Amino acid sequence: MSIAHRATGSALYAGTLLIALWLIAAASGPAAYETAQWIAGSILGRLVLFGYTFMLLHHMVGGLRHFVWDLGHGFDPQTRTNLAKYSVVVSGGLTVLVWIIALTR
Amino acid sequence: MLSNSSMRTPLGRVRGLGSAKSGTGHFWLQRLTAVANLVLTIGFLCVVLSLIGKPYGAAIATLAKPQVAILMLLFVVSGVVHMRLGMQVVIEDYVHHEGLKILAVMANTFFAIAVGAACAFALLKISFGG
Fold first, then answer.
1. Domain spans, chain B
2. Shortest CA distance from A95: residue in chain B
3. Cβ–Cβ < 8 Å for B124, A28
4. Phi and psi dihedrals of B26, rounded to 5?
5. For A80, which of A1, A17, A56, B120 is 20 to 30 Å away at the CA?
6. What are phi and psi of B115, to 5 degrees?
7. Contact criterion met (CB below 8 Å) for B71 and B47
8. Pair A63, A1: CB distance under 8 Å
9. pLDDT over 70 at B3, yes or no
10. What is the DSSP letter of A105?
C-alpha cells in the first residue's frame, strides 16, 4: 500500500497537466472549452477521469492512514492490514459515489 | 557505523538543522499541505461536479465566483507544493547518479512551478476577463 501511495501520487503528478489544460481551455474561450469537454466526455476521456478520480481518492484516504502513523498509532500488524483493506474499500466506494453524482447530473 | 572522520558526537552533528541543513522543513511542509489538500480536494471535486453539463457561459460564471476562484487557487498552490515535495522523495530514493539526481530535482521544481503558474494564470484570467 505504501508503494500504491507513491504510484498514485506519481500519477496525480502527471494528472495536474490535465487540470492545467482544462483551465487553460476554459480561459481561452468557448471553442477551446467545448473541445476540452468533448475530450473529457469521450469513452477514453471518461476512463482516464475515472482512473484519476480513484487515484485522487485513494491517495487522499491513504494519506489519512499516514496521519494515523504520524500521530504514533496503528503500527501493529493487524491494524496495518485493516488500514490497508479499509483504504481500498473506502476510496473505491467514494469513487463510485462521485461517479454516480457525475453521471446522474 | 559511525565515521571516525569527525570528533563530533552524533548529537552534535544533528543539532540545529542537521546534515541536510533544512531540518524537518520538508517533512513538515509535506504534512501541512496534506492537511490542506484533504479539505481543498473535497472542494475541488464539488466544483468539478457542479460544472458537469453546464454550457460555457455558466461554467465560466461559476469559476469566476470569488469563493470558487479562491478555493481553486488554494487547491492548485497547495497541490503543486505537495506534489513537488513528494516527487523529490521519489527521485532521491530511486535516482542514484548524483548529477542525474540534481537535474531531476531541478526539473521537478520547474514542472511544479510551471503547472502552478499555468493554472493560476488561467483562473485569474477567467475571473478578471480580458
1. 23-128
2. B45
3. no
4. -60, -50
5. A56
6. -65, -40
7. yes
8. no
9. no
10. -
Interfacial residues of A (vs B; Cβ cutoff 8 Å): 6, 9-10, 12-13, 16-17, 19-20, 23-24, 26-27, 30, 33-34, 53, 56, 60, 63-64, 66-67, 70, 98, 101-102, 105
> Which chain A residue's Cα is nearest to B77?
A16
Q: List pLDDT tens digits, range B101-110.
A: 999 999 999 9
| C-alpha cell belonging to residue A99 | 461517479
Chains A, B: CB contacts within 8 A come to 71
Domains, chain A, ranges and CATH?
Answer: 2-104 (1.20.1300.10)
Residues of B in contact with A53 (CB under 8 A): 45
Rounded to a whole number of angstroms, the distance from the CA of B19 to the nearest CA of chain A is: 22
**Residue B19 banded pLDDT, cuts 50, 70, 90:** low
Q: Does B87 touch chain A (CB under 8 A)?
A: yes
Task: Establish how many alpha carbons lie within 13 A of residue A89's alpha carbon, considering only the half-sphere containing its beta carbon.
Answer: 6
Interface predicted TM-score (ipTM): 0.93
B47-53 long-range Cβ contacts below 8 angstroms, 24+ apart:
B47/B71, B47/B72, B49/A98, B49/A101, B49/A102, B49/A105, B52/A102, B52/A105, B53/A105
